[in-house]
Amino acid sequence: MAWLRDAPVVVFFFMLGMALLLAALGLGMGLWSFRLAGALRGRKPVPVDELADGYQLVHGRASGPVLAAPLTGRPCVWWEVRVWERSITSLQDSEGGSDRRAEWSERRHDSSLRVVQCTQGLTVCAVQPLGMTLTIPTEVCDWQGQQFPPENRDPESQPGTAFMPLTERSSSYAIVGGTLRGDRFRYREEIIVPGSELFVLGQVQRVDSATWEEAQEPPVDPGILADQAAAQAGGVQMHSAPAPLDGEPEAEAEADAEEGPDAFGRVGWSEAIDRQNAAAMQQAQWQVGKHKGKHYVMAVQAPELWVGMPQQAAQGGWIMGALFTGLAMFMLWVRFGAA
């Protein structure tokens, strides 16, 4: 205990901060898992054709729309991808020398923005893609390669589970003449395949398809059409719309207006996705989405098959939080309270 009392202030408070941080992480994980297990406890799945407004566990089949997974091209109704790139970094040692090593940095992490259609018979429930607390996919692929897009488009897959922690994968690489040789990229892709059984915990409400109909442009005044025809017959150029700026053709201006994917394939929200989702919503009688302050879960497995994992995580989080909280209190007592 003497070394805690005599340690420099900066060192002591750094160690105290680490203990408090780990305690907060443990308690936070325990609270998150406890609330998830509590939200699912005793809740029975409700088939899509028997839904009503409220916070429910929806049960149906993933029917579409069918998408192509970004990295492998596999058919799916939902996807999430992550891409890391390994690059060389130089670290200065205490003797003034430098140590070169390869480290991973994340280059892409996003998921599909298309509505997922969950059906039962002729009834359709639209699952909103944003705000998921937990997603259990059908398949997960985790592999490495030397380029992006990946040269291996058919990697081995494994079934999805409730908690799939990221682990460091061993791979061979070498730094030769300042150049990295070996696997440069790591890819991870999760998908839900069409036809999968789907369980969605969220806020259900009825869809008014009329609110999702595309706005129709009003008919053009016949008088305006007649004036344009007369002007064109007389050789007059109409300028009802402003011309593009010098050096910016119309095609380039339109291309700039719609942002495309970057070098690593990130695709943000666009008007095209908006229109596609509106079309999907017109076919739905119900929709389910996130309820503020409550968990929003989409899983391909019944909760009873995986709800035990959040319960175990809650117990582990409470224990971890209690241990590091006790350690922090002990450190404070030794430093300031011990005689």
Structural write-up:
The structure is a single chain. The chain is an alpha+beta fold. It has six helices and 17 strands. The chain has helices at 2-6, 9-40, 222-233, 250-257, 271-282, 308-337, and strands at residues 46-47, 54-64, 67-68, 75-76, 78-92, 98-111, 116-120, 123-127, 134-136, 139-145, 157-159, 173-176, 179-182, 185-192, 197-206, 286-289, 297-299. The chain has a five-stranded mixed beta barrel with strand order 2-7-8-16-15. The protein has a five-stranded antiparallel sheet with strand order 6-5-14-10-11, with no helix packed on it.
Averaged pLDDT, please?
Answer: 76
User: Uncertain segments of ≥5 residues (pLDDT<50)?
Assistant: 234-260
Q: Give the count of helical stretches.
A: 6
Strand tally? 17
From the spread of the alpha carbons, the general shape counts as globular
How is the main sheet built?
A: 5 strands, mixed, barrel
Strand order of the largest sheet: 2-7-8-16-15
Order of helices and strands: HHEEEEEEEEEEEEEEEHHHEEH
Structural class by helix and strand composition? alpha+beta
Specify the helix fraction band.
Answer: 25-40%
**What is the first-to-last residue Cα distance?**
12 Å
Supply Rg.
28 Å
- Proportion of strand residues: 25-35%
